[in-house]
Amino acid sequence: MPRLVLLLLAAFALSVGVAEAADRSDGSTAAPSRITHLLTHVPLSTLNKVGAGKLSGPSSFTLTKLRAPLRRGGKPELLTFELAWCPHCAADSWALAMALSRFGKLSGLRLIDSGTLYGTKFHGNPPFPHTQGLSFFDARYHSVYLDFASVVLQDLAGHQLQTPTRTEGNAINAFDHTGEIPAVDVGGAYGFLGSGFSPGVLAHKTWAQIAKSLADPKNPAAQRIDGLANLFAAAICKTTNGKPTGVCNSSGVIAASVARLQ
To answer: How far apart are CA 81 and CA 204, in angstroms?
Structure first.
């Protein structure tokens, strides 16, 4: 993302507190059950065929190996920093939701349209207007393997929304020194920065069209979203001691691990 955005996000400590933001919204709406069903029921055969998928290279999608375990409630925690207006966050959100759903139950998902702020105010080029993604704002997650926390720093209008805790801020700062978004910390073992694929892959596609495409291993969007979901799952498996085995021993997750985590 542009340097202007990175400098802006360095000031996130001044944003509204989480408790104070409880009555606010990031601009998302509740996701219809048909979309969440498609998202959480992608056939294992499809995920295995996609394997490592077609993801961005290390210059735009960086991976850092970490050695500071991030845990909550006795479980490794997956932590994300996002912006509601960020098209890259919207793109990655599909894969994050898919990966999380393989380790537990994710409920309260919402739909978000990234709008035009990235291009009009922050001069993103390409601007990737109206990228259709998912919001984890106020979502709930239950898993015996993993904990999940999402911090939405700004809403669709660019207003400050949530502030990370000191622990969350320190975890992300360990590998994100410039405030790049999206940022994902997987259990303090791996830090991901940037977008796993170009938001342009989702251009002019509705949420329903994206969700339906995920089951087709030949679909360009699925080759990226499913591949990124396999990679996130592979990273999670490193923190859960390879559990559940049905996920961690699947050929798609193994392929993603060999391609990007070794």
So the answer is: 25
